[in-house]
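User: Predict the structure for this protein chain, please.
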Amino acid sequence: MTAPAPEERVDGRTARAERTRAAIVDAHLALINEGDLRPTGERIAERAGVSLRALWTNFKDMETLFEASGAQVLAAYDAAFTPVPPDLPRAERVARYCRQRARLLQLIAMPARAAAMREPFSPQLRRNRQKHVERLREEVDVLFAAEFAAAGPAGATLRNAVMAASMWPAWSMLRDGLSLSATEAEAVMTRTITALLMTAEP
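Assistant: Here is the predicted structure, written as structure tokens:
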């Protein structure tokens, strides 16, 4: 039997390493989604079916694991996102925007709760959050461009207000602080953003 070529052996090791990394990230996010918001390395390794040594061989620390897990959460967010046509009437744009925001915020709810607990101590989690902020800024800049332009010098403030009303901290307050259902929270978001955009009317 012919021995594998060196390139094949390298490719095989690379593929195994990628599978191991993917299993660790999947385990990390699965534990979080099940309510374990601060899973330990031991718990993650056990869930992934790898040794603790393998976990720290593939991820030198929690920050690198946060980076990989954050990328997977963002990829799921992007896959679930559908642009709202910016040429629709304002009421329809707001309704569709808030309906989608509610759905996406529910999608990332558990990772967002977990990140909020550790974010003050984690530069990587703050970088992860900033990526979500940038996605949202790009979205509202297109969707509500007319309203921001009509607001004149106050356009940047209006944009920030719209973003703040539809980001995770506001959603968490509605869902967790006020104990609203997702439907009720969406209605509050819709009313808030509608009222904000009305300030841009001539």
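The longest helix spans residues 6-33.
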